[in-house]
Amino acid sequence: DVPKEQWAQVVEQKGGPVVYKKIPVAEPGPDEVLINIKYSGVCHTDLHAMNGDWPLPVKLPLVGGHEGAGVVVARGSLVKDIEIGDYAGIKWLNGSCMSCVYCRQSAESVCPSPALSGYTVDGSFQQYAIGKAAHVARIPKDCDLAAVAPILCAGLTVYKALKESNAKPGMHVAIVGAGGGLGSFALQYAKAMGLHTIAIDGGEDKKQVCLELGATTFVDFATSKNIVADVKKASGDGLGPDAVILLAVSEKPFQQASEYVRSKGTIVCVGLPGNAFIKAPVFDTVVREIVIKGSYVGNRQDTAEAIDFFRRGLIKAPYKVVPLSTLQDVYDLMIKGQISGRYIVDTAN
Ligand code: 8ID
Ligand code: ZN
Ligand code: ZN
């Protein structure tokens, strides 16, 4: 039975903190499902949302969260292909219009009128969350709901970004911010895709995590005397990595990547530091034929593929489960850059 009230973490004002309190359980509309969220990963995006870092208005009061895995407990009258009791997930793209030129071509991440979980609509830091049936992730019954939660944003996003990088098996990819949430999944997906990885992050903790996750080399951005030279050296023949996936939450590495990427290589921007700009020399970009592009989550097919990599046991990134009531503590660690891998909140307490 679905209760009328539930526990949630609510952002009541820009900058936070989150407030742990009881709020009503919403009812699904005709094309929606209600998911009893069991676990939800904490993405740096949730912190950007609370702090109002981006030039995109955020709902207030707000229930954040967009890596929510759970069990379907109710569905609207139009929903035919999801049963009560199925496992399903709330991802960043809660819904999209389904009729614009982008949605028609499965580029739904750039739909001009999307519903964003934990941003423009309430997300998964609550016990019962609503998702558009067309968009909720289908999660196979043999998946562990805690472990699969971060696939719904971190895994999906880096899997798509690696595809966008055009890196082929055997090539070298630099993962910038490799010890963080997205980064640790990027190392695992890259390994599963047969790529060499150059992990870039800071500190002994992150170094150890990255090497355990299969990084070919680790470059410490905090202690390296010459990041450009170190990254190039790590690329086998010394000409630089074929692709760079930028996941860091600071501007500097976005400026640096064009210095070490291989000629004809691809730089994929994924991290979203506030008020940041990409600057690259026109001369080098032209004569070295460098590609610089953005990548934003992934579509429903990417979601299914990213989950399938996980289901096959190819993706094992470190995570720590803590009570939903302690979400603010997770944000405090994240602000200090002290999280290796992902924190996951358990909505039961
Ligand atoms: O679809 C998208 N494009 C998408 C999806 C999900 C998340 C984008 N994001 C964005 C988030 O909003 C955030 O801006 O990706 C960024 C990374 O999210 P995250 O992985 O959840 O954050 P994290 O766990 O805090 O990891 C960030 C890592 O970057 C490192 C930190 O040490 C940390 O491990 N880092 C920083 I800050 N500066 C660095 C530098 N100069 C750096 N690593 C290398 N070089
Ligand atoms: Zn996210
Ligand atoms: Zn659309």
From TrEMBL:
The keyword NAD applies. It comes from the Eukaryota. Its EC number is 1.1.1.1. GO terms for molecular function: alcohol dehydrogenase (NAD+) activity; zinc ion binding. Residues 15-345 form the Enoyl reductase (ER) domain. The keyword NAD applies. Belongs to the zinc-containing alcohol dehydrogenase family. This is alcohol dehydrogenase. It comes from Pseudomassariella vexata. The lineage of its organism: Eukaryota, Fungi, Dikarya, Ascomycota, Pezizomycotina.
